[in-house]
Structure prediction request, 67 residues.
Amino acid sequence: MRRITLFTLIAAWTLLAGSSATFGQATASGTIQGTVLDKSESVITGALVVIASKATGATRAASTSGE
Prediction:
């Protein structure tokens, strides 16, 4: 009986420990706001803005709208 209980505890611990890794797969989101200006401080419409994550290597690009 003790052997079955020990096996059950080890199996339960393994399942719980393994399931915690799945929580790291959540999607993170955020917002970056700003204005792209030229030397005369005029708004640049259609400027390409690229951001990159050093941690993951992921990149995102967007064009400015002029608003």
Strands lie at 48-52, 59-63. Residues 15 and 39 are 59 Å apart (CA to CA).
